[in-house]
Structure formats: C-alpha cells, structure tokens
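Notebook, bench 3.
Goal today: get a predicted structure for Molybdopterin dehydrogenase from Paraburkholderia steynii so we can plan the truncation constructs. The sequence was checked against the plasmid map this morning, with no discrepancies at the termini. Length recorded as 232 residues. Pasting the sequence as submitted so the record is complete.
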Amino acid sequence: MIPFELARPRSLNEAIALLDPEDPDIRPVGGGTAVMLMMKAGVLRPTRLVSLRDIEQQYALVRAGANGELRIGGLTRLATLEHSPLVKEGWPLLSSTLRTLSNVRVRNVATIGGNLGHADPHMDMPPVLTSLGARVTITGPNGERTVPVEELCTGYYETVLARDELISEVIVPPQAGRPAAYMKVTTRAAHDWPALGVAVVLDMKGRQIDRASVIVGAATDRPTRLTQAETL
C-alpha cells in the first residue's frame, strides 16, 4: 500500500478546508468501509485521507424536526439508525430496509452520509430514501445547500458533490402511516447487495391510491423513478 497522510480535523469547517476541489486523491473517510475496499483493490491510491472520526458526535444525531421530519446527521452509523426507536416507530420502511442491508459488521461502521456519497448503484438506501422524498444537506466552503436524494447521484460512483463538500445531514419527510415496502433480489444471501431493488410508497385517500412513488435501484447507474408504473 502506498503511504498516505491521515488528517484528523476537529471541526467540519476544518475537514472541508483539508479537502481539495481539484485533487481526486484527497478523500474524506467516515466509516471507511468503501474506501478501504477500494484501496485494497488498488482502485484508490489516496495521498491524503481526511478522517471524520473526531467530529462524529456532532454529526451523528437522529432526531425529529419541528415539522415532524426525521433529521439524521451525516456521520450517523447505519446500525444506529436500524436500532433507533424513533425510526422504528415513525419510519418503519427505513428500519426494515436496514435489517437486511449488508451485514452487521458493515452496519456498525458505515455512515449514512458515506453510504449515499459513495453512489454505488447497488445500494439499498438511495431508492428507499428517494421514495420517501428525502433530501440531503451538503456543506462546503461556500456554506450549505439542499439537494433531493433523487438528484444526488449522477452516474456510476458519481454525485453532485464537489470534492470539498460533505453530506452533513439527511432529512426525511414523515412516513405518516403511508403504506410502503422495499423488496430486493440478490444473487446470494438476503443481506447481499441487491441485483435489483424496488421501493414503493403510497399516498392514500381512503381506500384509493392518490399517489405512488416507485423507485428502482441497481438496474441502472442511479436510482430511477418508474413514472409509468406510478401513473397506472
């Protein structure tokens, strides 16, 4: 493995300042699951890794917002979300999806911001969060901006994030009793990466479907809305 610098900033602003918008070999690292795999495979040879471990407590909160939305710090570990009583009660689609997302070891380490920012099309969370109408807060040297999760990925391992921007928060509207489900097909075990995943959220008027959100993942280079299925 080629030697690299490991920086450990003490604030989000310091972390952003250590990134370089022009240098793809400087990477932020939260849980590090994807980064370590890429380094072992020789796909990534960083000159500097910016560890977010020392600012984790500030950006790993799971709480209800003033309008009933779920607010998730970008450094929240997937296992924390999985076991959160707030998530289980108010966002059961997220809770059930997380139970079969990869394995326990990965969920104990991986963060929600890293999971979304990695933009691997074979992921469970992007289509599920898209179906729920979630958005992310992106923080960079010029401040904050908000982007729908549906618009975050632009292609294979590509996002709208600049190299000196980080996902600081994920905001999920209330599920509010809406019927919802996520189903995936895997080539091996149930917790494996999806070969195909479909997330569906329904808005009901009485016993009639008023609006459907149908998002497919893993079949294309980014989560894709099935507009024809939504209008049936």
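Residues 56-172 form a domain with the Uridine Diphospho-n-acetylenolpyruvylglucosamine Reductase; domain 3 fold (CATH 3.30.465.10). The first strand starts at residue 5 and ends at 7.
Flagging this for group meeting.
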